[in-house]
Amino acid sequence: MARVSVLGVANPVVVVDGRSGAGKSSLARRLVAAWPGLGRVQLVALDDLYPGWGGLAAGAEYARETVLTPHARGMVGVWQRWDWQSDARAEAHAVDPSLPLVVEGAGVLTPESARLADVTVWVDAPSSSRKHRALDRDGDTYRPHWDGWAAQEEQHLVAHDPVSLASVVVRVP
Length: 173
Known about the structure:
This protein is α/β, with parallel strands linked by helices. Helices cover 40% and strands 23% of the residues. The protein has a single domain (2-168), classed as P-loop containing nucleotide triphosphate hydrolases (Rossmann fold), CATH 3.40.50. It has helices spanning 2-5, 24-33, 56-72, 111-114, 127-142, 146-160, 162-165, and strands at residues 13-18, 42-45, 77-83, 88-95, 101-104, 119-124, 168-171. A five-stranded parallel sheet has the order 2-5-1-6-7, sandwiched between helices.
């Protein structure tokens, strides 16, 4: 919270990244609930943007193109939710550039997105607790995709080194 408070801007952008089950979504929701200041804070979760189980990189790029870049330019961003059942984009959502914005999801913190954010966060947790939390949360839906998703996360870590781009690192047991 302190990092957001000292910015002194009306519409700061916080990007929260970390591997599956690390606690990104919980942290982002807590951040929005405790936001310093009045008014609404927009929260965009990449779980709503990834185009399927093989789409970590594509979802992060989509977030940069449709949410982060327009917000940085003072323009309304419009993104479409990914409907996992129909395997297609669904209804559209607008992002108001005059309001604060929190974007969270695995793969979102890249050199390009870091330049568009005021605060960058990496959430870290041990592999065993991450897997336990993720599978408890999503169960049999996620279980067959865990290894493939973890491989995409590993590619993201190697390609972008998001930990080095984070202005804040949060460690979760």
